[in-house]
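HUMAN: Ready with one sample?

ASSISTANT:
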Amino acid sequence: MHKGDVTPAEAFQRLQNNAAAVLIDVRTQPEWVFVGVPAVERLIRLSWQVFPTMQVNGQFVAEIEQMGLPKDTEILCICRSGARSASAASALTQAGFANAWNVAEGFEGDKDTQGHRGTIGGWKAAGLPWMQS
């Protein structure tokens, strides 16, 4: 189990207040390209599940460890809606990262009544900085 859940606004505030904190966007490359990414300095893009099969990236933890992050680094994991990032944060916790958090609501949040994401909950709907390539 990971350290806990934070809202997108709380995650952004933690990144502002802690110069060592990192945000790991665990979505897929197509999501980064077509939906956008949080516009923050310490952003790591590393997929928890690999597109198009959506199999869990068996090297996820090893790749984070190879980056040399201290085990006490405040790590905030984000995905589309908070499910994949919770799994990624839990895997990091099991690997000894004591401060891995899940960004509940994710980047896009839940679907609205018309079936669209990005309007209810999530990083984008909270008005936090993001960019699209």
